[in-house]
Design goal:
By secondary structure, the protein is α/β, with parallel strands linked by helices. The protein is built from 8 helices and 13 strands. It folds into 2 domains: 150 residues, Alpha-Beta Barrel (TIM Barrel); 98 residues, Elongation Factor Tu (Ef-tu), domain 3 (Beta Barrel). The two termini are 17 Å apart.
């Protein structure tokens, strides 16, 4: 199965050729990169879609609103690329959450760009997971017809508040790790902690019946501090490739597996780790076929 791919981060200049070959469109903020994409598209006899990212207060990537129309005109004049839309980002770097007022500004900006540049903007992207509660509150979404959803749809939470989003699952993704050692080591350090690295070792408190489980998992694989321990287990510490958990469960042995829930930081690193095996399961009932006669008016979740 194939589908159009959009790169939601502005490409590196050195990636222009491969982005044009793989992606139908990309989000951009720099004219030098857009020019490189245009040249690559001409070489491969294609047209690459450009979505301009607008700075709306998060202070990460983005073109200042007053400069968007000018850049849009330059994009329209370039052969090899086509202006497909504009978009914004919220609450990633500075924690600036989207508001109805900001969404209205983005809608108005889309109208202004069309008036000055001519082509209809197919995509007006209102942001990421932080915008989902706004999109679902029943009010008018204006020109916004696209959201770039990650954390909310994967973990079922609002990234700004951490609150659960009704109708979404919080356990859709699980990290499974295998026990490689069980022991009941003394809690007292057996060496002088003159080395700063040794001073950072965390040891479980000396509680009768508590043993330590060591898993083949570490900082290179995930954000260990972003894992949620199963009930009855406590986080002791982690190194580059080991995770240490305290437990009173006597049934766990070498070769046993434990399942962890993750926050977004842990999930992102686990999905990108080369040694993590990723398995997908479709355990939901088959959806009912949609009546083809009914209108399909909804936001696109990317």
């Amino acid at each position: 199965m194939t589908c159009p791919i959009t790169l939601i981060r502005t490409p590196m200049l050195s990636q222009a050729d491969v982005v044009v070959q793989i992606c139908e469109a990309s989000y951009n903020t720099e004219m030098v990169v857009i020019s490189a994409l245009a040249a690559a598209a001409l070489r491969y006899k294609t047209v690459h879609g450009i979505i301009l990212t607008v700075e709306m207060g998060d202070l990460r990537e983005g073109i200042m609103p007053q400069e968007v129309a000018c850049m849009a005109q330059r994009v329209v004049a370039l052969p090899g690329v086509a202006l497909k839309g504009i978009g914004a980002n919220f609450a990633c770097l500075s924690g600036i959450a989207p508001t109805p007022a900001k969404m209205q500004v983005l809608s108005d900006l889309a109208n202004d760009v069309e008036e000055q540049c001519g082509p209809y903007l197919q995509t007006v992207s209102g942001g990421n997971s932080t915008t989902l509660p706004w999109a679902l509150n029943g009010s008018s979404t204006g020109r916004i017809n696209d959201l770039r959803i990650g954390e909310a749809i994967l973990l079922g939470v609002d990234p700004v508040t951490g609150n659960r989003i009704d109708g979404l699952y919080r356990d859709a993704v699980t990290l499974v790790a295998e026990v490689i050692e069980t022991d009941a080591k003394s809690v007292g350090p057996l060496v002088d902690q003159t080395d700063p690295a040794l001073a950072r070792i965390h040891l479980v408190s000396d509680t009768t019946g508590t043993m330590r489980l060591i898993f083949a998992l570490g900082h290179q694989d995930t954000d260990a501090t972003g894992l949620t321990m199963p009930p009855g287990h406590t986080f002791v510490g982690a190194t580059s490739d080991h995770l240490v958990i305290g437990t009173k469960d006597p049934t766990l042995r070498v070769g046993s597996e434990m399942r962890f829930q993750m926050n977004y930081s842990a999930l992102m690193r686990a999905m990108a780790a080369p040694d993590t095996q990723i398995n997908t399961h479709n355990d939901l009932p088959r959806p009912k076929p949609r009546d083809a006669r009914r209108p399909n008016n909804r936001l696109a979740l990317v």
